[in-house]
Design a protein that fits this description.
Layout (H helix, E strand, L loop, with lengths): L1 H16 L5 E12 L9 E17 L4 E6 L4 E6 L13 H12 L7 E7 L9 H16 L6 H16 L6 H8 L4 E6 L4 E6 L5 E7 L7 H19 L14 H7 L5 H25 L3 H17 L6 H11 L4 E7 L6 E7 L3 H16 L4 E5 L6 E2 L1
Parallel strand pairs: 3-5
Antiparallel strand pairs: 1-2, 1-12, 2-5, 2-6, 3-4, 6-7, 8-10, 8-11, 9-10
Helix pairs in contact: 2-3, 2-4, 3-4, 3-5, 4-5, 6-8, 8-9, 10-11
The protein binds alpha-D-galactopyranose (GLA).
């Protein structure tokens, strides 16, 4: 599969630029196992980089021109590194444009290039195709410009490109794990300190199954920003009782129990979810360390219930998908993953129940929603690198 895609990339490069590429880079999408909406609260997340990625073949130029051909969109974009503007037609090209803009702003000297790009991370499904695009482009500029960019700094530059150039106010999780993930590991990230631990998954006999609801995440941007402000509001109010707190990360469950009644109802629900989700992430790491997948499954389910009832970022289709998984024997845990309002769920299932899960989802999900699901059986893979 990967070999066929590389073949396609190379022949695409030859066809569009009449030469052999100098560099072949890739960056993966991600699925978050637990720790949802905690990244912008300075909290903890536990994502894995997956076996779906975006690949780029490239060759440097002697001038400042960047020409990128997308095999998936059948479209060429062109810009000069000396004048990087938005492209309202080829919106996919705003990711490389934004990355180039902020790499330059950080003082990196970039070379122009020719590049061909193709990916198999489903778009707008909550599996971070945008982060994969940003990271693979940053890796490509690094390589062909002969630079060495600190990986954490690269993730931050990619996040900045998404926040300020593309205009999506995301946290740091997606870019970080796309750059730094590790095969067979989840990545525990402390989103304040930007320190991380690789957590061995030890999933012998267990599959990570990602189910796409096929609901494109329509509401997500405005609702995402609303959740962010609710959390900030909560911190402002709680700061009167817990002086010095900077984010919900600084509030523990006991303190929250003591002071939660000072918060307006909605703010209270949102903040309560975040405080408990941070605890669930750390408990999940412990569960993996002890090989206690059953415990982890319970935490996944609790996380979904919190996202559904307290943080209110689920939707009927995500709930249906999760309920189908919950009612399947051999399922260890299941929850929505990513920002919500559509996109995907993540489920851990015993290998010998995988077929049952797949056929139940394929039968019951369309019956309940009228939509066709897509199912991806995923493995935890390395973060970005050369091919
Ligand atoms: C999106 C954002 C991430 C994170 C998740 C929710 O994927 O890009 O930064 O906030 O939503 O956990």
């Amino acid at each position: 599969m990967t070999d066929d895609r590389i073949e396609m990339l190379l022949s695409g490069f030859k066809e569009h630029f009449g030469a052999e590429p100098e560099a072949l880079m890739r960056a993966p999408g991600r699925v978050n196992l637990i720790g949802e909406h905690t990244d912008y609260n300075d909290g903890f997340v536990l994502p894995v980089a997956i076996d779906r990625d975006i690949m780029v073949a490239s060759r440097s130029r002697d001038d400042a021109l960047v020409r990128i051909y997308s095999l998936d969109f059948n479209a060429l974009t062109e810009f000069s590194l000396n004048d990087i503007s938005h492209d309202s037609e080829n919106t996919w090209s705003n990711y490389p444009r934004g990355v180039a803009h902020f790499l330059k702003e950080e003082g990196y000297e970039l070379r122009g290039m020719e590049a061909v790009v193709t990916g198999n991370v489903p778009l707008a499904a909550g599996l971070s195709s945008s982060a994969a695009m940003e990271v693979v482009m940053a890796m490509t500029f690094e390589k062909i410009s002969g630079l060495e960019i600190d990986p954490v700094k690269m993730a931050l530059i990619c996040q900045k490109a998404e926040n300020q150039f593309v205009g999506v106010n995301c946290g740091i999780m997606d870019q970080f794990v796309s750059r730094m993930g590790r095969k067979d590991h989840a990545l525990l990230l402390d989103c304040r300190e930007l320190e991380f631990d690789l957590v061995p998954l030890n999933l012998e006999g267990v599959n990570i199954v990602v189910c796409n609801t096929s609901v494109k995440r329509g509401l997500v941007d405005s609702e995402y920003n609303k959740r962010r402000s609710e959390c900030e509001r909560g911190v402002k109010i709680l700061d009167d009782f817990l002086p010095g707190i900077r984010a919900l990360r600084d509030v523990d469950v006991d303190d929250f129990q003591k002071y939660h009644h000072h918060l307006p109802e909605t703010t209270e629900k949102r903040c309560g979810y975040i405080v408990r989700e941070n605890v669930r992430v750390l408990e999940s790491v412990q569960a993996f360390e002890e090989g206690d997948l059953i415990r982890f499954g319970i935490l996944m389910n609790e996380s979904h219930i919190g996202l559904r009832d307290e943080y209110e970022v689920s939707c009927p289709e995500l709930d249906a998908m999760v309920e189908i998984a919950w009612s399947t024997d051999g399922v260890i845990g299941s929850r929505m993953t990513g920002a919500g309002f559509g996109g995907c769920t993540v489920t851990l299932v015993a290998e010998d129940s995988l077929e049952d899960l797949v056929s139940k989802v394929n039968k019951e999900y369309p019956e309940r929603t009228g939509l066709q699901p897509e199912i991806y059986i995923c493995t935890a893979e390395d973060g970005a690198g050369s091919l």
